Amino acid sequence: MPEDASKSQGQNQGQNQGSTAPAGVGLFFELFNEIGIIEQLSRTMAQSVLPDGLMMTHFSVLNHLTRVADGRTPLEIARAFQVPKTSMTHTLKGLEAHGFVEMRPNPGDARSKQVWLTDAGRAFRAKAIADISAAFAPIAPMLDADKAEEALPILREIRQVLDTARD
Amino acid sequence: MPEDASKSQGQNQGQNQGSTAPAGVGLFFELFNEIGIIEQLSRTMAQSVLPDGLMMTHFSVLNHLTRVADGRTPLEIARAFQVPKTSMTHTLKGLEAHGFVEMRPNPGDARSKQVWLTDAGRAFRAKAIADISAAFAPIAPMLDADKAEEALPILREIRQVLDTARD
DNA sequence: ACCATATAGTGCGACATCGAACAATAATGG
DNA sequence: CCATTATTGTTCGATGTCGCACTATATGGT
């Protein structure tokens, strides 16, 4: 859980005292704090416009299947989102219950399955994009697109490092 | 839930089609995706070295109380972390059960309380910082501190915009 | 003083998350 | 071929998150 660093951007002392911590740990503490708060706020904001019973996770999976490709396996999807496979099982069960995806056996591997979008799933995704965009519309003008563009590759790099370090 | 944008950094089409979405919505979709994954990975990594029954939230609150000041009210802490106050009630209950904080009545407002650190709480925080730092030590050299320093103020600004838009 | 409204914190219920253990199937190696 | 090990997906249980409703107290207007 992230804390509001703006309230405590003091001298930042005492974080490395008496340890062999590498330089920069405090910096990444702060960075992860900010990231955590933004994640929290953006997720809450987006979810508030999704219909009842639908999470951000559901939308994100539909979006992924649309943008990448149909027919992914549950494990592939779980890896794409960096969540445990049990969490993805749960999410997919919800999507299936809503009729937004269809689970088919995976030809070529009887252990596995494939996740296919339905027409209802595609329709829901389109509507969700519109709704979420509308929710962010009032604040989008306040956000500096150039800066966001600048931060994006940095974040990508950080993610990749964390990802590979996950073993 | 964030998806792995590295697997789908294509032409990003179809996000604004047929809507009045402002320019840049797609950009922020991507940004929030990356942020979500980083939050997920860093939280999981940090929690894995915390003792059983202790969450990242617990550590973060202790850290906040140490860095800002003792005697904050639960609501102040909830606001600092941008979480609902019910979540903070739960977290504080856990901290109190572990003997890491002490809840006292708030002189001057009988509705309110104050949260005070105990010696055990301070000791736990110190150990947690050492443990988390150690967990991140192997990957810290792979992270570019200059870039992180560059991204931090941008993220702060984004957070502030989201925060004020929350009403 | 009184009443309406706002605010602090909590109880509760619904539900998401995720680790552990498991069953089914695949892959590997002898 | 068989045995061992790895992998996919699920079930189950424990627990965190958070919206709703509620109580207690404060505050502001008349």
Low-pLDDT regions of chain A: 5-23
The whole-angstrom Rg of chain A is 20 Å
Multimerization state? homodimer
What is the count of β-strands of chain A? 2
Return the structural class of chain A: mainly alpha
State the largest interface.
A-B, 84 and 84 residues
Strand content of chain A: 5-15%
How is the biggest beta sheet of chain A arranged? Answer: 2 strands, antiparallel
Distance between the termini of chain A: 24 Å
Shape of chain A: globular
Number of helices of chain A: 6
- What is the helical fraction of chain A, as a range of percent? 55-70%
Strand arrangement in the largest pleated sheet of chain A: 1-2
Q: N-to-C SSE series of chain A?
A: HHHHEEHH
Mean pLDDT of chain A: 85
Explain the overall architecture.
2 copies of one chain form a homodimer. In chain A, 56% of the residues lie in helices and 6% in strands. Chain A is built from 6 helices and 2 strands; from the N terminus they run ααααββαα. The first copy, chain A, has helices at residues 25-47, 56-67, 74-81, 85-97, 119-136, 145-164; strands spanning 101-105, 113-117. Chain A has a two-stranded antiparallel sheet. Chain A is globular. In chain A, 36% of the residues are buried. At the A-B interface, α1, α2, α3, α5 and α6 of A face α1, α2, α3, α5 and α6 of B. Chain A binds a DNA duplex (30 and 30 nucleotides) through α4.
